[in-house]
Amino acid sequence: MGVLKRSVFLLVIAVLWLSIGTPIVSAAVDDDYRAEYASIYAGNLNDQDAMKVAERLDSWNWTRHILGSSSRNQVRWWSITGQDPAHPGEYADDADLLYYSTHGASNDDPQLTRQRTLIYVNGAVRDRLYADGGDAAGNPAITPSGWRVTDLQSPTRWNNDLEWVVLAACNQLEYWGSNEDGAHEYARAMLGYPRRVHSILGYHEWAPEAPLYSDGLYRDTKIALDFIDSQSSSTGYESIDWAWESANEAYGIPHWAALRHAEHAGETIWRPKYGSSGLSVDADSSPWAKPNIEFVYTSSTFTKDVY
Questions:
Q1: 202, 205, 200: which is closest to 223 by C-alpha?
Q2: DSSP secondary structure letter of residue 194
Q3: How far is residue 260's CA from residue 218's CA, in Å, rounded to a whole number?
Q4: Most buried in the list 94, 99, 218, 266, measured by CB within 10 Å?
Q5: In this structure, is residue 233 part of a structural domain?
């Protein structure tokens, strides 16, 4: 075999080996080249924050995947965790950004309970959503024993197009240094297959709502809008990490928290007005790669690997 033919042959073999032996990783763009959001209020108080987030993203020409409020009887467990066969398409996993506002409860006694958010219907709790792999109390597909996890992947329903989750709920990202705390449980929710969530933003203590300001906006609404606006073209390219921190601390909330794959530190949200040349979303963390998930809270003074 001549030198040229031998070189071509070896190149073909190398390409075939790479295509077979190496998993395909998402390109450094949004998974379906669209900017989509889900904004959901599931509590029993004021849904202003979720409504205003939707209004702002609509003005940016994001595609609305879900806008729902429990006060309007529009939200059930499948809206957040997704993929109930009886309600195809009615779930947040196909959006890029999920803003989820509700009440949250701690798993302060893991022997008896688990980290959870509450969904209200007609003023009463209808569903309880668990961070550790279950769907909702009283619904099929709950996982009473918790996660069934490999070293790389978990059974989370957040496993498709969703990159960023804002959990505007109390106590969800608690850190006690235990595998049963909220930080560790939600970290496992970032190990979806075939695609992993990039970041989860929330609180390791209570989440704000009041006071009501003179402009008619509640504090949680102002924090949410400051965070969203930090990703717009007019304010530059502020990273999600810094944006969540600065938006909360500007309104006197130091106990913000965040989970992120380490490779997504400093990531910014895609600004669709820039078109395909302006996509800033990082490539998804490969679901075949050993995860490195960091927990950050309180003025960036504490960063801890949780997975």
A1: 202
A2: S
A3: 27
A4: 99
A5: yes
What is the full DSSP assignment across 87-142? STT-SGGGSSEEEEE-EEE--SSTTT---EEEEEETTEEEEEEETTS---TTSTT-
Decide if pLDDT at 222 tops 80. yes
> What backbone phi and psi angles, to 5 degrees, belong to 89?
85, -10
Number of domains in the chain: 1
- Name residues whose C-beta falls within 8 Å of residue 225's C-beta, 6 or more positions apart in sequence: 52, 53, 56, 217
pLDDT 10s digits, 97-149: 999 999 998 876 655 566 888 889 888 888 888 775 544 433 333 333 344 45
In the chain, what are the helix, strand and coil shares in percent, each to the nearest 5? 25, 20, 55
Are the CB atoms for 168 and 49 separated by under 8 Å?
yes
CB 92 within 8 A of CB 100: yes
Q: Is residue 193 part of a domain?
A: yes
Residue 211, preceding peptide bond in cis (omega within 30° of 0): yes
Domain that holds residue 140: 34-305
